[in-house]
Amino acid sequence: EDQVTQSPEALRLQEGESSSLNCSYTVSGLRGLFWYRQDPGKGPEFLFTLYSAGEEKEKERLKATLTKKESFLHITAPKPEDSATYLCAVRRGGSQGNLIFGKGTKLSVKP
Amino acid sequence: SAVISQKPSRDICQRGTSLTIQCQVDSQVTMMFWYRQQPGQSLTLIATANQGSEATYESGFVIDKFPISRPNLTFSTLTVSNMSPEDSSIYLCSSRKGAAMNTEAFFGQGTRLTVV
Description:
The complex is a heterodimer of chains A (111) and B (116).
Chain A: E1 3-7, E2 10-14, E3 19-26, E4 30-38, E5 45-50, E6 56-59, E7 62-66, E8 70-75, E9 84-92, E10 100-101, E11 105-110
Parallel strand pairs in A: 2-11
Antiparallel strand pairs in A: 1-3, 3-8, 4-5, 4-9, 6-7, 7-8, 9-10, 9-11
Chain B: E1 4-7, E2 10-13, E3 19-25, E4 31-37, E5 44-50, E6 56-57, E7 68-72, E8 75-80, E9 89-96, E10 105-107, E11 111-115
Parallel strand pairs in B: 2-11
Antiparallel strand pairs in B: 1-3, 3-8, 4-5, 4-9, 5-6, 7-8, 9-10, 9-11
């Protein structure tokens, strides 16, 4: 069964304290792993897509990496505005393009 | 990137009634997806709506409870029928640009539904 597990469920950081979020997955025929950011009362906002093991992508203080079993979202020197829930999702081959989501990691960055 | 306008953004409804949620995309799209996000749970796909055909429902979701319309390539509705408190959740519509499987999905802002 396709499954996405994110850890930790919640993470509290001090401003400037770097850390990583984990997304482990099992899926039949991965057709992309996606990271989204979701702010309260809003829909998920796209951050990254990764397709193959070893791939990395960066955007400002965020860097996403992918292995055959998991992905990491590294946050370097976070700021309070990085506080949000970060969602990981996979798209599997043979699907109509829908995503399978993890439960998310709620990140709080304190000044 | 494409934009989805979803409404209403929130509603409080009486049990036994129905609510229709609308999603308007600012460009033509092939697929539209409806998700449910319950507190502490992951986004769960309800159904996939393709223009001109019946929606495809995921296990645990049925058309009588969640009828979907897809009259054209920019619009879709989801109705939550005969609501009970267990239907209280956030409902999100989604699509992706183009038919290629490797394009990212984009989302509406969600509808927060409370059933009392």
